[in-house]
Design a protein that fits this description.
With 172 residues, the protein is mostly helical. The protein contains eight helices and three strands; from the N terminus they run αααβααααββα.
């Protein structure tokens, strides 16, 4: 899962490298004739890895462009991916890790550590608290995330205070 713009750029770079590797393989007639199975396996492997990256790139770009005031419908195919819902909702709602920390009464370092380890280091209470802040519910078998009015108001306050602090520092 892509979690930030740096990972996005890295994934795009590798997707292009896999495409270039396949372009070179297609022009290597000698290898294709000498080892057709190995040649095809290399092509298929590169295509599979590239497609996985492309899928993640599309998903991240969709999250980044999601209007934060709209509900977010998320699906997972495996319960092990449940923690990714929290990260995806934070990205789609345009929340920074610092803002999520304030809203969930956690430290920015905790949120950063949770996301780096896909919430495997979070307690169940941490997980539930952040889930509540992000408004994730199961509706008709799908996960729907929507910030409720209380957290929207809290977020506005957090952003105003952060803006005030940065303005005061700039004026100093």
């Amino acid at each position: 899962m892509i979690k930030n713009d740096k990972q996005l750029a890295y994934s795009k770079e590798w997707a292009e490298k896999f495409a270039e590797a396949n372009r070179k393989l297609r022009t290597n007639v000698e290898k294709r004739l000498k080892d057709p199975d190995g040649w095809q396996l290399s092509q298929d492997s590169n295509n599979a890895l590239r497609q996985k990256l492309i899928d993640e790139i599309v998903e991240y770009e969709t999250l980044v462009t999601h209007p934060p005031t709209n509900p977010l419908v998320l699906e997972i195919s495996d319960m092990n991916d449940l923690p990714n819902l929290l990260i995806k909702a934070r990205i789609a709602f345009k929340l920074t890790q610092q803002e999520l920390a304030v809203l969930s009464d956690r430290t920015p370092e905790q949120i950063k550590a949770f996301e780096e380890k896909n919430y495997h280091n979070a307690s169940f209470l941490d997980f539930l608290t952040i889930n509540k802040v992000l408004g994730i519910q199961i509706i008709n078998g799908k996960f729907v995330a929507q910030l409720d009015d209380f957290y929207k108001q809290e977020l506005m306050t957090v952003r105003q205070e952060a803006n005030l602090d940065s303005n005061m520092k700039a004026a100093s």
